[in-house]
Write a structure and sequence with these properties.
By secondary structure, the chain is an all-alpha fold. The chain is 39% helix and 0% strand. The chain is globular. The two termini are 22 Å apart. Bound molecules: iron/sulfur cluster (SF4).
């Protein structure tokens, strides 16, 4: 799978902290950035391919504007 899209990722301009918050943190600021990201769809698809049917606790970070909980739910709905 090509990762060429990563060169246009907005998160690369702000660093990973917002996208991988500490326990008790939230994804609000990350999701605001993702909402404006030109490669959001590629990012979400890459996360889905990488995570597969992983349990919620094995999913980390905001990808494509989606939280681990949301990605887990979407995976169940499309399975
Ligand atoms: S959609 Fe993906 S690549 Fe874009 S800012 Fe969000 S996490 Fe980064």
């Amino acid at each position: 799978m090509s990762h060429d899209w990563m060169s246009d990722a907005l998160c690369a301009q702000v660093g990973p902290d917002l996208f991988f918050p500490e326990k008790g943190g939230n994804y609000r600021q990350a999701q605001q950035i993702c909402a404006r990201c030109p490669v959001r769809q590629d990012c979400a698809q890459a996360a889905a391919a990488h995570e597969g049917t992983s349990h919620r606790h094995l999913r980390h970070g905001a990808w494509g504007g989606l939280t681990p909980t949301t990605r887990t739910r979407q995976n169940r709905e499309t399975a």
